[in-house]
Amino acid sequence: MKKLSKIITTLLMTLAVSHTALAAEVPIESAPCNATIESITVTEQLISDELTAVQNGEGYQPAWARANRKIFDAVIEKQTNGYGYADLANIARNALIQYRDMYLRPDYYKMQDEAIYDLISDLIIEVQNGKDYSEAVDEAYTRIYKSVNPSYEPNSEIGIDRIYLDIPATDTVKFSRARKLLLEAIPKTE
C-alpha cells in the first residue's frame, strides 16, 4: 500500500510539473502597449490553461468566457497585485484572439514572419545594437503601410481626426509580427 501511495504521489507531481511546463504564455507582442511585465505575468497565472486550450484548437468564445470569469473573480478577491479588471481583461482578450488566429492561419503567420523579417531586418539589427524600440516600431509600421501603398506618408500633425487620414487597410498580423521580431531583438540584460 505504501509503495502504491508513492507511485501515485510521484505520478501526480509529474503531471503537475508537466502541465505547468506546457502552459501557454501571453504572446508579448499581443499585449497592449500600456501593459507591464507584471500585469502580463498576473494574467498568465490566471488564464494559462485557457490560452493553452485555444492554442490547441478550442474556440475563442468559450475560453474567453472562462478567462473573463477568472479575471473578474481574482479582481474581486484582490488577488491581482492591484491590477484592475480592464488591464488584465485586455491582455487576456488580445492573447486569446492571437492564439485563435494563429491556430486558424498557421501558414499565413509563417509567411508574414518571413515577409516582415525581410522588410525590417535592418531595424532588427539596429534594435540589437541599441536603437530605441519605440522608434523602430514607428519606422516598421511606416514600412508596412508603404508596402501596401507606396505613396503613403505618415501624418505628423497633432489633433487630426484619424478618420480623415488616408491610411492603407493592412492586416494587423503584419504589425504583431513586426513587434514580435523587434521585441526579440532587444538586448537582454542579465
Describe this structure in words.
With about 190 residues, this protein is mainly alpha-helical. Helix content is about 70%, strand content about 0%. The protein is built from 7 helices and no strands. Helix 2 runs parallel beside helix 4, helix 3 runs antiparallel to helix 4 and helix 5 crosses helix 7. The model is unreliable at about 5-20 (pLDDT under 50).
Distance from N terminus to C terminus (CA atoms, Å) equals: 48 Å
Percent helix:
55-70%
Number of helices: 7
Query: How many beta-strand segments?
Result: 0
Secondary-structure-based class equals mainly alpha
Main beta sheet, described?
none
Principal-axis shape equals: globular
Q: What is the residue-averaged pLDDT?
A: 88
Low-pLDDT regions: 3-21
Strand content: under 5%
Helix and strand string, N-terminal first?
HHHHHHH
Round the Cα radius of gyration to an integer and report it. Answer: 20 Å
What attributes characterize this protein structure?
disordered N terminus; 68% helix; mainly alpha; 190 residues; 7 helices
Task: Describe the structure concisely for a colleague.
The chain is an all-alpha fold and 190 residues long.
What is the strand and helix layout of this fold?
Blueprint: H1 2-22, H2 37-55, H3 60-76, H4 85-104, H5 106-128, H6 133-148, H7 172-185
Helix pairs in contact: 2-3, 2-4, 3-4, 5-6, 5-7, 6-7
